[in-house]
Amino acid sequence: MFAVLGLGNPGSRYAGTRHNVGVMVVERLAARHAVSFKARRKWWGWGGGRGGKGSGACTIGEGSISGRDIVLAKPTTFMNLSGEAALELAENFSLAPERIIVVCDDCDLPLGKVRIRKGGGSGGHRGLDSIIAQLGTNAFPRIRLGVGKPDEGATAEHVLGPFAADEEEALEDMLENAASAVELFLDKGIDSAMNAFN
Q1: Is 158 one of the annotated active-site residues of the chain?
Q2: Got the DSSP string for 88-101?
Q3: Is 104 exposed, middle or buried (0-12, 13-18, 19+ CB in 10 A)?
Q4: Which entry of 19, 33, 125, 158 is annotated as an active-site residue?
């Protein structure tokens, strides 16, 4: 089993912002593969009594992609607490970090660029910082999506803002490519996905 954790901020205020492209990809995968999300307050008893503990730090949907059992997940916490969702997935589905695929935005990549990595640092991304801290490792795969470089000193405003009308086509292509990258990762492995999309 694999989990795909799309990072973002909860609530309608943040839907469609640059910081939420990870959530957008997970929602696209859910639509492609008929996976429904279910919000739960507690983790106890999920999946036929898997047990475990948790505060409900993410909304999940279970299904199958490329013949593999998967969990699609969207954090219910804000970005800087994304590690809580990753830890709940690891504990409640007995997932090693390398089986949690994290999808997130990246200001250092041009708009529309998709970059897949097996691990590495956070690059200053607070969501990745939180996941590294909670899992105790940076050895988890991530798919980083370019949202463009902000003006000097305006990073927060940039990532929390919506895409411009003339960016919509590039955004659409990027979301499609990222969803396809996840599918190829699950089908053929991360090296094949890296070769095809990096």
Answers
A1: no
A2: HHHHHTT--GGGEE
A3: buried
A4: 19
Single-letter amino acid code for the residue at 95: L
Q: Which residues pair with 105 in a beta bridge?
A: 145
Query: Mean pLDDT in each 10-residue stretch from start to end of the chain (198 residues)?
Result: 96 91 97 86 44 68 94 95 96 96 94 96 93 97 91 74 91 97 97 96
Strand duo 100-106 + 58-65: pairing: unpaired
Whose CA is closest to 140, among 85, 195, 180? 85
Q: Determine contact, residues 127/30, Cβ cutoff 8 Å.
A: no
Please give the Cα distance from 112 to 174 (Å, whole number): 5
Strand partners, 60: 38, 73
Q: Which of 130, 48, 45, 36 is nearest to 87 (CA)?
A: 130
Three-state DSSP class for 193?
Answer: helix
